[in-house]
Design brief:
- The protein is about 20% helix and about 40% strand.
- It starts with 14 loop residues before the first strand and ends in a 5-residue tail after the last helix.
- Strands 1, 4, 5, 6, 7 and 8 form a six-stranded antiparallel sheet that branches. A two-stranded antiparallel ribbon has the order 2-3.
- It is of the alpha+beta class.
């Protein structure tokens, strides 16, 4: 259902769809946003937050002020998540690889957070820009969206899950139209 993303739509003559099953969350661009969400929200998902130590420089007044010196405030910032579950994959990367050099790739990242009773899917879309011949880097990451449901409600939420494909298609089409100044 989710995997059919671009192949049956009007983009199949422009893109090949490559689906990658990821065995960790670290390879997902923008995972720190999900780590922050997990850290800030009480939940029963079988994931843990990885944090890195850093200091934030905060000034009490203007930077050259002697009265208000610079304060280094130590913090543990969420940077990723991990799980000890032995599952087939933790996330999916649905990558639309272009068949033509004038088009850049696009990607949909889907992250699965699992608990005993429910599942939360986080998803976002990435557009890439070409930085050298056949070499790309992310240029835009959409806002992370999510769908949560109890396992016994899966049939009722199937449509929501398939809407991820529709949103991805729409995002790709909108971006291509704006880049190439195509109007209907």
């Amino acid at each position: 259902m989710l995997i059919q993303t671009l192949n049956k739509d009007k983009f199949n003559h422009i893109f090949d769809l490559n689906v990658t099953e990821c065995n960790n969350y670290d390879d997902i661009f923008g995972i720190n946003t999900i780590a922050k969400w997990v850290d800030e929200n009480k939940n029963n998902f079988f994931v843990k937050v990885k944090k890195e130590f850093s200091t934030n420089n905060i000034y009490g007044g203007n930077e050259s002020s002697i009265i208000w010196p610079k304060l280094n405030i130590p913090r543990w910032n969420p940077v990723s998540i991990y799980t000890d579950l032995d599952i087939v994959f933790h996330s999916l990367k649905l990558r639309a690889n272009p068949k033509f050099p004038s088009v850049c790739p696009y990607q949909c990242n889907v992250i699965f957070l699992i608990s005993r009773y429910n599942l939360r899917l986080f998803y976002s879309f990435i557009s890439f820009k070409e930085v050298s011949w056949d070499s790309y880097e992310p240029s835009y990451l959409s806002k992370w969206n999510s769908i949560e449901f109890m396992y016994h409600n899966y049939e009722e939420r199937k449509k929501d899950i398939s809407n991820i494909s529709i949103e991805f298609n729409s995002s790709v089409e909108k971006h291509i139209r704006s880049l190439h100044k195509i109007q209907i």
